[in-house]
Specification:
Chain lengths: 338, 434
């Protein structure tokens, strides 16, 4: 008797689980709020301000999706996640999407049953050294002590790179970037390694940032992408095409300022399709015609989001680099809106 | 008889003289405490040197403190402007600006009075527990958890009577069935209370709501953070782990094999596993097993796990106390004709708990500090969770010592308070006169 009850309960759980995973879009619409997983605090990418309002590069993608799906960029509930909790929060249904500077890798996609929708930031691991060290290239770091965060892909990449170039190094393990900064500034290590965006963000906090240089070598590929659960293709498409819509908008010159103007109709049919003045692309996603227009209205196109949070005018001051549009020497390439 | 030689005999008392220089005042103190031997003298010199060095090193940093600024760079600019190039100083402005976040996390700012009131009421509810002269208020301590829950999470006011009614019907069931046996009575009471909470409480709340709606805005657990979160977890775990620990320690000494085995298994399992593992279990495994959308609150799950963890340790501390009680005490209570529970309540526990006070308080202090571990399940604890969030803003990125010193100070104040109270209690309960 007890076994029967248990089995029935287990079956019910399974049923609920599959039901909930089948229609994330319907769940979000019914709830009226998008549950978005973000970082507990990463400069430029996502952090709450003194009033508890979240801002940042990844955060703006959550808001764009909320604007496209629910019509209101403020209808997002942000769930702070750590490196350990992020994918579980997604798999368990606690969040609908994850925008937390997560690297798209083979194992994560296939072993953890996740779908990485589209790269929104191309990062890569680099090195920072004090200018006084007189080093101009990572290949001159033979025998150096290097501060590296434990339990990350960073550690592995570092080992691979030094092995590949037949060089030796002494790793100094650190827990997070705040501790790394203390160690590095105290001279405990010759070089500090992490993702290039992280290096720039860290250097911006130094009292004398100009005494330190970021070496030109990028030793790994870190494509960061928003993530959804595997098995709900419609929802994955929605998040993916929201990202593409923001990238496409930049390519086509649509900004939050000229959006209303453009939406009245232009001579460019692709632009008209994107903004819903021609055709009904939104209908195919289960959304309405104006979905992309609302997503762009939230915080502007990809370039505007980049500049506002991590671009040259911010303290982090990242150059577009790989994240420029494909026709400007970068890798940002939205699939065509046909 | 010749006259006694006067020269050898004093006729009046000498006035008392001051002790020699090495036997009084500062010299005596220094001689006895700092330089009683060569090693002691060496250590004294080294120690004093270290203290002076630390003060000299740290004083400028504290003296150059900045209390109002909007960013770390602004802080640095102010320090450079006031104290000259190269000066180093503390930037407490970050605490000033994020004060509310450190205290309440993301709790809605127009409702800060609710946790404030809950904190005050918590202090009131602690009075009768901590000091005998407030014993009359003990009824308030009994109902405070329900009031505190309502104040912090909000929702319908009728939650309070609904929770308390569970205990009432449980007590009634015990009255009615205890004549059969105490164990049956307890089981019936637990069963009735759980049935009430599971099935009847919600409709009762709904009914009362429709008659007299009395609501506070609902606040989600995700919005709790900072010291509010630490206090909720710490208070709940301390309150619930003590009774649970007592039961477990008694269970472990029980003659009934099933009770004994289950208590031993529980204690050994929980003690054998790190707290972080238990927190991960609460956060992940339960999330996989429960259907998505089930709102089995994360904070509640964490509180339960921390309570279990503390209870296992408390059980062992109290078992130590029980082991120290002479066998004669148990036999004496048997010969008086007391039942098992009467003997525990009147004879055994008062002695065992008294012996265990230092151990119990040690567990509580550890537990309170362990509440910061909830960062691992992405709850925003005051030490790292909130600090990470603060550092995540470009204006405060790069701040390091100030948030740690601030959180550390607050934790120290409360832990030191607990420790002093334990010493007071020990002195008060001291009945042997050695």
């Amino acid at each position: 008797m007890k076994t029967t009850v248990f089995l029935a309960a287990a079956a019910a759980v399974g049923l609920f689980a599959s039901m909930a995973q089948a229609g994330t879009l319907d769940d979000v619409k019914a709830r009226g709020v998008l549950n978005c997983g973000v970082n507990t605090g990463l400069v430029g990418f996502g952090a709450p301000d003194a009033n508890g309002n979240w801002t940042g590069f990844d955060v703006d993608f959550c808001r764009a999706v909320a604007a496209a799906v629910l019509g209101d960029p403020t209808k997002v509930k942000f769930t702070p996640t750590t490196g350990e909790t992020r994918f579980t929060a997604l798999a368990s249904g606690e969040i609908d999407m994850l925008a937390r500077n997560s690297t798209w890798t083979y194992k994560r996609e296939n072993d953890l049953k996740l779908t990485f929708v589209a790269v929104n930031y191309y990062d890569g691991q680099g090195f920072m050294v004090p200018k006084s060290l007189g080093v101009n290239s990572a290949k001159e770091l033979d025998g150096a002590t290097i501060c590296v965060q434990t339990g990350t892909t960073t550690e592995l990449n570092l080992a691979d790179y030094f092995k590949q170039h037949n060089m030796k190094y002494t790793p100094i393990s650190i827990k997070d970037s705040a501790e790394g900064k203390q160690q590095f500034l105290a001279g405990a290590c010759d070089a500090y390694t992490t993702d290039a965006s992280g290096l720039a963000a860290l250097r911006a906090t130094f009292e004398k940032p100009h005494d330190y240089v970021i070496l030109p070598e990028i030793i790994s590929k870190e494509p960061l992408a928003p993530v959804v659960r595997k098995g709900d293709d419609q929802w994955a498409s929605i998040v993916r095409w929201v990202v593409y819509a923001l990238i496409e908008a930049e390519e086509l010159g649509v900004t939050s300022k000229n959006l209303d103007e453009m939406a009245k109709g232009t001579s460019n049919p692709e632009l008209n399709r994107l903004l819903g003045t021609e055709d009904n692309l939104g209908g195919m996603l289960g959304l309405d015609k104006d979905w992309a227009k609302r997503a762009i209205a939230a915080h502007g196109n990809y370039g505007e989001i980049f500049e506002a949070n991590i671009g040259a005018s911010t303290p982090i001051g990242l150059a577009r680099g790989l994240n420029a549009q494909w026709n400007k020497g970068g890798l940002m390439y939205a699939m065509p809106f046909h | 008889m010749s006259q006694a030689p006067e020269a050898f005999c004093r006729s009046e008392m000498l006035p008392p003289r001051e002790p020699p220089l090495s036997q009084r005042g500062a010299w005596k103190w220094l001689h006895e405490n700092m330089f009683s031997s060569i090693p002691s003298g060496a250590i004294s010199v080294l120690g004093t040197g270290l203290v002076i060095w630390l003060v000299v090193q740290l004083y400028p940093w504290f003296a150059h403190s900045v209390w109002t600024a909007n960013s770390l760079n602004e802080c640095r600019a102010i320090i450079t402007k006031t104290w000259g190039e190269g000066a180093d100083g503390a930037c407490w402005a970050v605490i000033h600006e994020r004060w509310n976040q450190y205290l309440y996390g993301f709790y809605p700012s127009d409702a800060y009075w609710r946790p404030d009131l809950a904190f005050l009421l918590m202090l009131v509810s602690l009075l009768p527990v901590l000091f005998a002269r407030f014993r009359k208020l003990i009824w308030f301590s009994a109902i405070f958890p329900a009031i505190g829950y309502w104040l912090i999470w909000g929702g319908s006011f009728w939650v309070i009577p609904a929770i308390l009614a569970g205990f009432a019907v449980g007590g009634l069931a015990y009255r009615l069935t205890a004549r059969l046996s105490a164990a049956v009575g307890l089981a019936a009471a637990a069963l009735v209370a759980v049935l009430w909470w599971l099935f009847l409480a919600a409709p009762a709340i709904g009914l009362l709501d429709s008659v007299a709606p009395l609501k506070l805005e609902f606040v989600e657990s995700r919005n709790l953070g900072g010291f509010l979160l630490s206090f909720i977890i710490g208070f709940c775990a301390i309150t619930f782990s003590l009774p649970l620990g007592i039961l477990l320690s008694l269970g472990r000494r029980s003659d009934l094999p099933i009770i004994k085995t289950s208590c031993v298994l529980f204690i050994e399992f929980i003690r054998g596993v790190p707290l972080i593992t238990l927190l991960f279990t609460a956060s992940f495994l339960l999330a996989y097993f429960l259907p998505p959308g089930t709102t089995f609150d994360l904070v509640l799950r964490v509180v339960i796990m921390v309570t279990f963890f503390a209870a296992a340790y408390i059980a062992e501390v109290i078992r130590g106390g029980l082991a120290a009680i002479p066998r004669g005490q148990f036999e004496a209570s048997d010969s008086l004709g007391l039942t098992y529970w009467q003997a525990q309540r009147l004879i055994v526990m008062p002695q065992a708990l008294k012996i265990s006070i230092p151990g119990i308080v040690g567990v509580f202090i550890g537990l309170f500090k362990d509440t910061t571990l909830v960062i691992f399940v992405a709850l925003l604890d005051p030490l790292k969770g909130i600090t990470d969030a603060v550092r995540g803003n470009a204006s405060w990125n790069g701040i390091y010592w100030e948030p740690y010193i601030f959180s550390g100070t607050i934790f120290f104040v409360f832990c030191f308070g607990m420790s002093r109270y334990a010493m007071y209690l020990e002195r008060k309960l001291k009945t042997d006169h050695h």
